[in-house]
Write a structure and sequence with these properties.
globular, alpha/beta, seven-stranded mixed beta sheet, 13 helices, Aspartate Aminotransferase, domain 2, Aspartate Aminotransferase, domain 1, about 20% strand
C-alpha cells in the first residue's frame, strides 16, 4: 500500500526493496513479524549512537518547548554556543559555520561559496565519489547517480584515483593544462565512504598538499559520512598529517540522525570576504533549533570520557573481528578505518534483503559489503553482527 502513495529512493518503484518496520530501539530495528535486525550501518551512516540515546533526545524535546522553529535572523545563545563548540571539535578557532538540513546542501553551498569567492567555475573531483543528491552536489559526484541526472558536469573536471596516481603526476598535469586560475576548488571525501571505503595512500596526500600549496587551490573536505568520530578521529581529515581544508561539509552524524541537519565550516579568509560582500545563500530551516539541540547532544557525547572509552573499545573490537574475516576464502580484501569498513568478496554479490534475512543491516555494493555500526553499539551485538555476516559469506568460519 505504501508504494501507492510515496516514492522509495534510488530505485525503480516496481523493483524497490523495502521492509516493514514497526519500531527502532537501542541498536536494532524490529520488523512487522517481530524479528529484530542488528543495525550494522547506523541506518544510513547517521545514527552513530543508536536509536535510544537520551543525551540527544532530551535536548531536542527541551528545544520544542523554547524554540520549536526559528527565523534565520534570530540570535539566541544556543546558536552561538553550539557553533563555537562545533568549531572546537573541528580544531578551529576562526572561520564561520553555515547551517543546512542535509549533506547535499552542505556540499551545494560549499560549491556556491567557492565559485563566488574565486570567480571561477571548475571543481576538481574524483570519479569514485558521492557528494549529494542536489544538482550541484551530483555534478561533483562520480558514481551512477551522476549519470542518472542532467547536471552541470561541464563545471566538473575528473581527477585520477589516488591509487592510480599516488605521486599526483597526472593530477599536476591536469592543473597545469586547465590553469589554476580557472579552478575554484578541489572537492574530496577524505575517505570514500559508501562507494567502497577507499583510503588514499600517504604519498598521495603529501603530493596533493604540495600541489595545493603551489597553486593556492582551495580544498573542500566532504566529511558528511566520515565526520563525528566515524573514522577514528573527530573528522577524517584530522587523520591526515598537515591537511587543512578551506571548507568542511558535515551532516549525518552531526545530529545522530535524530533531526535532519547539516553544516558547512568555512575558513577565516572566505568568511571575512562576506563581511563586505553579499552571502547569497540561505534556507528556511537555517540553523533549525531542533538540529542545534540534537548537535549539542552529539557534542556532549563526544566530550564525555566514558563514551569515548566505549567508542575506542568498539573500534578495537571491530578491527579484531574484521581481521578474523581475512582468513575466510570468500573474502578478497578488507578496508577499514575506525568504525567504517568495506569487505570485498571473491566474486560474490549480495542484496540488502539477503542481509535482512540473516538478521542484520548492511550495504551491498558491487560485490562489497559496507559496514558502519553505531559507535556505541553493545560489544555482544557487534560480535553477533559478525556471526550473521559470516553466515551470509558461508565461508570456513561459519
Amino acid at each position: 500500500m505504501a508504494r501507492e502513495h510515496y516514492f522509495h529512493t534510488w530505485a525503480s518503484q516496481k523493483e524497490a526493496s523495502s521492509v516493514e518496520v514497526v519500531s527502532a530501539q537501542g541498536f536494532k530495528f524490529v520488523l512487522q513479524n517481530g524479528e529484530e535486525i542488528i543495525d550494522g550501518l547506523s541506518t544510513a551512516f547517521n545514527t552513530n549512537f543508536g536509536y535510544s540515546e537520551e543525551r540527544i533526545k532530551r535536548p531536542v524535546v527541551e528545544a520544542t518547548n523554547q524554540f520549536p522553529a526559528a527565523l534565520s535572523k534570530w540570535n539566541y545563545p544556543q546558536r552561538e554556543e553550539q557553533s563555537k563548540r562545533l568549531k572546537t571539535l573541528l580544531g578551529e578557532k576562526k572561520g564561520k559555520i553555515f547551517y543546512t538540513v542535509s549533506g547535499s546542501e552542505s556540499v551545494e553551498n560549499a560549491l556556491k561559496i567557492v565559485r563566488d569567492f574565486t570567480g571561477r567555475k571548475l571543481i576538481l573531483a574524483r570519479e569514485c565519489s558521492y557528494h549529494g543528491a542536489t544538482l550541484g552536489a551530483l555534478s561533483v559526484s562520480g558514481d551512477w547517480r551522476n549519470k542518472a541526472n542532467l547536471t552541470v558536469n561541464e563545471w566538473t573536471l575528473r581527477i585520477p584515483e589516488p591509487h592510480d596516481d599516488p605521486e599526483c603526476v597526472e593530477l599536476s598535469s591536469i592543473v597545469e593544462r586547465v590553469g589554476a586560475e580557472n579552478i575554484a576548488a578541489i572537492c574530496l571525501e577524505t575517505i570514500t565512504g559508501a562507494n567502497g571505503v577507499w583510503i588514499a595512500p600517504e604519498s598521495w596526500w603529501k603530493n596533493l598538499k604540495a600541489l595545493i600549496d603551489k597553486h593556492s587551490l582551495l580544498l573542500i573536505s566532504d566529511e558528511v559520512l566520515n565526520g563525528f568520530r566515524r573514522c577514528g578521529s573527530s573528522f577524517a581529515f584530522q587523520g591526515v598529517e598537515g591537511l587543512k581544508p578551506d571548507l568542511v561539509c558535515m551532516s549525518k552524524g552531526i545530529s545522530g540522525g535524530y533531526v535532519p541537519f547539516g553544516a558547512l565550516w568555512v575558513g577565516e579568509e572566505i568568511a571575512s570576504y562576506y563581511d563586505e560582500n553579499m552571502l547569497a545563500c540561505g534556507l528556511t530551516n537555517y540553523a533549525h533549533p531542533l538540529g542545534i539541540a540534537a548537535m549539542s547532544g552529539v557534542l556532549d557525547l563526544l566530550e564525555d570520557s566514558d563514551t569515548l572509552d566505549r567508542i575506542e573499545a568498539n573500534e578495537l573490537l571491530f578491527a579484531q573481528l574484521l581481521e578474523q574475516l581475512r582468513s575466510d576464502p570468500r573474502v578478497k580484501k578488507v578496508r577499514s578505518q575506525g568504525m567504517l569498513a568495506a569487505i570485498e568478496t571473491d566474486g560474490l554479490k549480495y542484496t540488502w534483503k539477503e542481509f535482512i534475512a540473516k538478521g542484520f543491516h548492511a550495504q551491498a555494493k558491487e560485490g562489497m559489503i559496507i559496514l558502519a555500526p553505531p559507535l556505541t553499539i553493545d560489544p555482544s551485538l557487534l560480535e553477533k553482527l559478525f556471526d550473521c555476516l559470516i553466515s551470509v559469506l558461508g565461508g570456513v568460519n561459519e
